[in-house]
Amino acid sequence: MEHGGGPLGAVGCAVVRATIVLALIGVRVAAAGPEPIQVEYAAPAGCPSEAEVVTRLHERANVARVEVAGARRFAFAITSDGAAYRGELTIDADGELTTREVTAATCDEVAGALVVVAALALQQQIPVARAVPVSPARWRFAAGAGVARYAGVTPSARIGVPIYLATGHGHQALRATFDLTTTDDAPMASFQWLAGRIEACPYVWRFGRLAAAPCAGLQLGALRGKGTVAFEAMSETRPWVAPEAVGRIGIRLSGFELELEGAIAAPLVRDRYYIAPSTTIYQVPAIAYGVATTLGIEFP
């Protein structure tokens, strides 16, 4: 018995091993076939495209998109209320509907969360109702300063220091900036421009570390001119009010944000400074502009 049992035992083990290997191969072959599903997608402009969402889903789950009845239907719907994005995933399996909602500050975050939920449902790892939650949009606060070049506010282009405070929620942002500049000692007169700016950015695009935003604002301050050659030279301080358009791009670097901006303003008060009887020293132009580089830090 012992002599005959050795070879038979070896053959038996080999048969068992072969059976297990074949079974595993069979499982893999069976699992290799993608599940056919129907996909519907609706989202506002600026969100990931339908093709991108389908590609993300392919990367996480073994599926094939089809347009036939009977396949499970995955309906992605994303909306925005201005402060945050809300996403809803509805799964229709033979008339049995399951819905999951998520909310986040950006559309990309919502789309990514819905893809994860769909992939987990396809893999049947967790129920859809237990999808990983996404943090709601929060207020952000930042402060910074930089260096700028202003033209059109005094006779000569001036170098200045913009100092700003900013806040944002979701894709919207507000900023208040105070501009410090040196005195412009022009021929026969000197000028000092002192102003602050309030800007609103209706939508801030974010691409990883990069950000870009169009903004609109208002410059408020004063322009002071003083004669320097006449015996009875006079000085005059006049209001500076100028609507502005701003374009800004930035990159985040280890808790800091480096930004480059350009601004165009249209002064509403366009005074002429002159020496009597009619020697014009400076006329405020129709357009003023500035470019700046700033470095800011965001507070939690």
Q: What can you see in these coordinates?
A:
With 300 residues, this protein is of the alpha+beta class. The protein folds into two domains: 35-130, Ribosome hibernation promotion factor-like (Double Stranded RNA Binding Domain); 139-299, Porin, CATH 2.40.160. The chain contains three helices and 17 strands. It has an eight-stranded antiparallel beta barrel with strand order 6-7-8-10-12-13-14-17. A hairpin with a 2-residue loop joins strand 4 (85-93) and strand 5. The longest helix has 31 residues, at 2-32. The termini are far apart. Residues 1-32 and 125-132 have low confidence and may be disordered.
CATH fold label of the largest domain: Porin
Termini distance? 78 Å
How many helical elements?
A: 3
Overall helicity: 10-25%
* CATH classification class of the largest domain: Mainly Beta
As for the number of domains, it is: 2
List low-pLDDT spans. Answer: 1-32, 125-132
Strand content: over 45%
- Label the CATH architecture of the largest domain: Beta Barrel
Biggest sheet statistics:
8 strands, antiparallel, barrel
Order of helices and strands: HEHEEEEHEEEEEEEEEEEE
What assembly state would you assign to the polypeptide chains in this entry?
A: single chain
Spatial shape: rod-shaped
Rg, please?
33 Å
Q: Name the structural class.
A: alpha+beta
**Spatial strand sequence of the major β-sheet:** 6-7-8-10-12-13-14-17
